[in-house]
Design a protein that fits this description.
alpha/beta; Rossmann fold; 9 helices; binds nicotinamide-adenine-dinucleotide
Amino acid sequence: MEAKAIISGHTELVGLMAYPIRHSDSPAMQTEAFRRAGIDCIQLAFEVDNTTLEDAVKAIRVLKMRGSNVSMPNKTVVGQYLDKLSPEAALIGSVNTIVNDNGVLTGYCTDGIGYMAALKNEGIDVKGKKITIVGAGGAATAMQIQAALDGVGEISIFNVKDAFYARGEETVRKIQEHTTCKASIFDLNDHEALRREIAESTVLANATELGMKPYEGITWLPDVSYLRPDLIVTDTVYAPPMTRFLEMACEAGCRYMNGHPMMLFQGAAAFKLWTGKEMFNV
Ligand code: NAD
């Protein structure tokens, strides 16, 4: 019996360049989505760090790859090797998706797009509303800038006074300079401000590492009295699927969502950039 070839001489390639990366579900997800859409393309993971990144980006052009995903430690440094950046990637200062249009490489950041799409998918409309996002690292910055670009009215950022706090201050400056959204940053240990800002918010998001290994079972939220049933609570953490933060949201009767939909929709946004097609309508 003749085996049905799934790869031919015409098969296109998108990459995933990061280190470490062998644990990623993305190549399986994207390749299955290409197959279902009838697109002759696959995604492969490549162990690329900052020392090999420039050559790896050159390979996208030389090998005429359709593009690539990029993850740590390359997200914040890959921009210098590209021809163009999308507005959100330029503001966030991070690229997780590269599109190759006839040798012209454009960098996008779909992490925040994925978060906003995950909210929209649940019927949650945050346009003109106030949201509180705890964190000032990579995921938090992408969510905060994208929320501001997408018309959220006001964003309150909280972070502990570690090395990320200055990045949060920079995000506030960028949001105020480039969007109509109001933004402020507070010390996460200022519990009075935390209680007040949560009380005024439609959505409360955890975008810190607390909840995932080695911080399982830990949250920065002092107690459930900070929550109310009509607050929507989201976590960027997806492993474990139920964090202490989300358990408290559940106890308080809030609607809640873990980081899985955000991850799925950031991949769907990259898929659309490469193919022009919706991942979930195929
Ligand atoms: P990062 O290292 O860039 O930022 C870490 C953040 O955690 C900072 O704000 C830091 O101040 C905060 N933090 C660390 N230790 C803390 C502590 N003890 N108390 C309070 N705050 C603390 O990390 P990142 O890439 O932004 O990732 C953050 C989380 O988001 C991780 O759990 C990651 O898995 C998750 N994430 C999810 C998605 C998704 O698609 N769902 C995408 C990216 C990241």
